[in-house]
Amino acid sequence: MTDIGDLRASVEAYERRLRRGSADLAAQVADPSLVALFRAIDERRSRRSSVRGSTVAVSAPRPPVQTADAPGRVISVREHGSLVRVIRIGRPPTLSFRAGQYVKLGVDGGERRKFSIASAPHDPHLDVAVELQPGGTVSPALFALAEGAAVDVADAAQGKLQLDPDAHDHLMIATVTGIAPLWSMVLDALHQGTAARFTILHGASLATEFPFYDELAALAEADERVDYVPTVSRPDDPANRMWRGATGRVDVVAQRVAPRFDPATTRVYAVGNEGMIAAVVRDLGAAGFTVSTESYG
Question: pTM of the predicted model, to two decimals?
Answer without folding.
Answer: 0.81
